[in-house]
From TrEMBL:
Domain of life, per lineage: Bacteria
The Gfo/Idh/MocA-like oxidoreductase N-terminal domain, residue ranges: 7-124
Protein's UniProt name: Gfo/Idh/MocA family oxidoreductase
Listed PANTHER family: BCDNA.GH03377
Keywords noted in UniProt: NAD, Oxidoreductase
One Pfam family recorded for the sequence: GFO_IDH_MocA
InterPro entries: Gfo/Idh/MocA-like_OxRdtase_N, Gfo/Idh/MocA_oxidrdct_glycsds, GFO_IDH_MocA-like_dom, NAD(P)-bd_dom_sf
Stretches assigned to the GFO/IDH/MocA-like oxidoreductase domain: 144-276
Amino acid sequence: MKDKRLGVALIGYAFMGKAHSNAWRNVASFFDVPAIEQKVLVGRDADAVAEAAAKYGWAESATDWRSVIERDDIHIVDICAPGWMHAEIAIAALQAGKHVLVEKPLANTIAEAEAMTAAARAARTRGVQSMVGFNYRRVPALAMAKDLIAEGRLGTVRHVRAAYLQDWLSDAESPMSWRLRKETAGSGALGDIASHAIDQIQYLTGQSVLEASGVLKTFVEQRPGPKGMEDVTVDDTAWATFWLTGDMGASVEASRVATGQKNSLQIEVYGTDGALTFNLENLNELNFLDATLPVREQGFRRILVNEPEHPYMDAWWPQGHVIGWEHTFTHQIRDFLLAVDSGSAPSPSFEEGLQVQRVLSAVEESANNKSTLTVVDHKSFATEGA
Ligand SMILES: NC(=O)c1ccc[n+]([C@@H]2O[C@H](COP(=O)([O-])OP(=O)(O)OC[C@H]3O[C@@H](n4cnc5c(N)ncnc54)[C@H](O)[C@@H]3O)[C@@H](O)[C@H]2O)c1
């Protein structure tokens, strides 16, 4: 590996900032990656970000992301700020020649996502890489599911079901936050968690959504804010059905009011020769049915995805010593660093993030139009990745 240490700046130090810090801190302990330095953690409150920097292993803290991304000793900018800031920070960082990892969804609007993709494409020609944080691609069981599908073990995939269910808004007294305002979050359950499910459907099957039909619902229309009751301007729940390339159909449900469901991403894939099921709440497990076996022997087998043969797993513990949600971020940073080191484009790229954004937009358009089947705008997508 190269001698030069890659200086990292991370923007945002709350939920995702903490998860990414943990991954930056431990990635080199488990994977053979280029050396990095956790240089600077950026937030708005000087004291709070200084405290977080000390706790999470960052050498320094700062409150002005603009001056940080100009520094010569910063080579990578990791954006864990809310969606409304992604475009401005990512474009400025790419233009300053920094590799960028940005949390999902790529942006709040198609226009922002397109501008980010254009900046990423221009940066790539200068050897500057970029990636979106759809971290569930790095769940070993889902990476393995993708391999099984690509190897043809399911035959032709016809039907995928995905549900991403949470319940943190079941309580009508849960307070307002940036996640519940359209101008800061873009959308609600749709952009926040259906985006993960849509990315998974396309990633697992290698197919792209062509048409969407959607329903969005805000069950609790006002919530308590710092200055009294405020209007909630995003959806609590989203439903969508999709037609994809490969004559495939899929459905997605995303909810923040699914009482009793905490963070349940459920995925079922049905093909002519087999089927797979997965639930994030048991993320070390993949259920696989091989329909080429005699019918009397068929049945879902539970594969404990914890063998050194499984994706990412040879770096961790002896078999059966299960891993958790936080490991997906370590895997994500491992893959990002290897791509930066080899000069290859990491995936999911901003192009892929933009395509998910276009699917989200089609769902929203359909929902605003009595669920009319709506064509996903693929304008120039096919050539964008080139
Ligand atoms: N991959 C996942 O599973 C996952 C899970 C949750 C959130 N996310 C995504 O991560 C991103 C952040 O979400 P979160 O849950 O961490 O939010 P959060 O509210 O917990 O944290 C946001 C952080 O951004 C910082 N911030 C806001 N404005 C800033 C500014 N001007 N300068 C510097 N820092 C600023 C805040 O101080 C805070 O530290 C969003 O895009 C969200 O969709 C991804």
